[in-house]
Design a protein that fits this description.
The chain has 2 domains: 14-178, Substrate Binding Domain Of DNAk, Chain A, domain 1 (Sandwich), CATH 2.60.34; 247-451, no CATH class. The protein is built from 13 helices and 19 strands. The protein has helices at 3-13, 61-65, 129-135, 144-155, 160-166, 247-255, 258-268, 273-290, 293-307, 334-351, 356-359, 362-390, 394-418; strands spanning 16-19, 27-30, 33-36, 42-46, 49-56, 79-85, 90-92, 95-96, 101-102, 139-141, 174-178, 182-183, 198-199, 202-203, 214-217, 222-224, 229-230, 431-432, 439-440. Strands 3-2-5-6-11 form a 5-stranded antiparallel β-sheet. The protein has a 4-stranded mixed β-sheet with strand order 7-1-4-10, with no helix packed on it. Helix 10 runs parallel beside helix 13. The longest helix is centred in the C-terminal third of the chain and has 29 residues, at 362-390. 37% of the residues are buried.
């Protein structure tokens, strides 16, 4: 065997398999690519990293006979499996088309465990090489060329810890979720109930709750009939001030979410803002690919939390004293947080179809524009402070310039795709309309069309090194 063949074989050995036989006519997707299957048993040649398998099983002949209409094929609930692949790993699942769920285990008996941490090891699926060869003709090759361009940008901050905390992992390291699963950020989910069943774009009325039997008490093997929720970070968007705040402090932190964001990161995310970005990305792929409406609620809440944290856009020296606060605000590392936020949102916007907001979620467009207007104002107000600091600290100046470039790139793309007019970051406040997010330009303000060419042209920057280390001047 020559060196090239040996290298190719070694690379193949590091790739994984996902085996899930589905009925003919089912929908199956991986990492944003979706197709209707014929003779299909799974996916091969999976590279290491996070993968998201989405599927809607076609109804059986018996189920089809009970569906309304003479030729209706029905719309099955979308199910999803999230998993971080390491080196050569194989995951085998079996779909029960009668119960319309994944079988609980290989024998279809014991309930799956769901753990909220990554400390415990995961059981490996042992599959013979002969078995894999027998399935080879019905295994689709991983669509590397189709998904590589967008998948990394959609999941760059999602870690296995993020997945375990929000979705929970079973004994094989898989996070199981479906379109009907509720969230801790739902109005009813926060009180312990799941969301009602919904279709993409319109809610259905009077649908039953979904309850899943799992083992939540791993040490005692206790079985719980409580509904399984997506456990995003918990916060009340309508009550964002510190306990006991009165007067000016109450007014400030009810409008400015900086204290709430800092408190959430410190108390629930181990003081790591990157995990907040990971939850935002996870919420996006769950609602965009799985059509999980509870994740849409979480996404809007997390998006607004970041955009409306005006004080965090200021240098620490320009912020109000935190001596009276029960916990301090984030450090100057919050500036890279905004740089990374703009980058990941650009990737999300580029992934969506150009008519997504107009045809599917116009209300989401209004929410995003209102939040982006607040962020634009906060960044514009902070510009003089960062400029003054940058004259003495070149590293800090570089971070601020990156924020500005990423805003300009986002503004250019959203103008082209959706007709959004986000404007440019200015040293004075820009006046935005209450619901439209449209800017009323000052006479001396530079228009986006003037930024298309030359050294001031906006561009999409490379995110290499974003995750960085803990230095303030490193990007997350």
């Amino acid at each position: 065997m020559d060196p090239a063949q040996a290298a190719a074989q070694a690379k193949f050995a590091r790739l994984g398999f996902f085996i899930l036989p589905l009925p003919r006519g089912s929908d199956f997707g991986i990492d944003g690519r979706l197709w209707t299957v014929d003779k299909f048993s799974g996916v091969k040649l999976l590279p290491p990293g996070l993968h998201f398998f989405v599927f809607s099983a076609a109804p059986s002949a018996t189920q089809q006979a009970h569906l309304p209409g003479p030729s209706s094929q029905g719309v099955a609930t979308r199910h999803g499996i999230l998993r971080f692949y390491r080196d050569a790993e194989t995951v085998v699942e079996e779909w029960d088309n009668v119960q319309e769920e994944l079988k609980r285990d290989a024998l279809g008996q014991a309930p799956r465990k769901r753990r909220r941490n990554t400390k415990e090891g995961r059981e490996e699926t042992v599959v013979s090489e002969e078995y894999l060869k027998s399935l080879d003709k019905s295994l689709a090759a991983y669509p590397q060329d189709d998904v590589a361009a967008h998948w990394a940008g959609l999941t760059s901050f999602v870690t296995e810890e993020t997945l375990a905390r929000v979705v929970g992992l079973d004994e094989h390291g898989c996070g199981l979720v479906d379109a009907l699963m509720g969230s801790t950020l739902d109005e009813r989910g926060a009180a312990g109930a799941t969301s009602g069943k919904r279709t993409w774009g319109k809610a259905r009325e009077e649908e039953p709750e979904v309850r899943v039997v799992i083992d939540e008490d791993e040490e005692g093997n206790g079985v719980s009939n409580e509904p399984v929720l997506l456990e995003f970070v918990k916060f009340d968007v309508k009550r964002s001030w510190p306990e006991g705040a009165v007067g000016e402090a109450l007014t400030r932190w009810s409008r400015d979410k900086s204290w709430q964001l800092s408190h959430v990161v410190r108390e629930q995310l181990g003081d790591d803002p990157k995990e907040l970005l990971g939850e935002l990305q996870l919420a996006f792929i769950l609602f965009a690919l799985l059509h999980n409406f509870s994740s849409l609620t979480a996404y809007k809440a997390l998006f607004a939390l970041i955009c409306r944290s005006a004080t965090l856009a200021q240098p620490p020296s320009s912020r109000p004293s935190s001596a009276s606060l029960p916990s301090p605000l984030l450090s100057s590392a919050s500036l890279p947080l905004f740089a990374s936020f703009l980058s990941l949102f650009l990737a999300q916007i580029q992934f969506l179809e150009a008519d997504f907001f107009a045809t599917q979620l116009p209300s989401l467009e209004r929410d995003l524009l209102d939040s982006l207007a607040a962020l634009s104002q906060a960044l514009s107000d902070s510009l003089p402070h960062w400029t003054a600091i940058g004259e003495k600290e070149p590293g800090t100046a570089g971070v601020w310039k990156e924020v500005v470039k990423r805003w300009d790139a986002l503004a250019a793309v959203t103008m082209e795709r959706f007709g959004w007019d986000l404007g440019v970051i200015r040293g004075t406040r820009a006046a935005y309309l209450a619901q439209g997010g449209r800017v009323e330009r000052a006479e001396d303000e530079v228009d986006l069309e003037d930024l298309e060419e030359g050294e001031d042209a906006p561009y999409v920057v490379d995110d290499d090194g974003l995750r960085g280390d803990d230095h303030d001047d490193e990007y997350y």
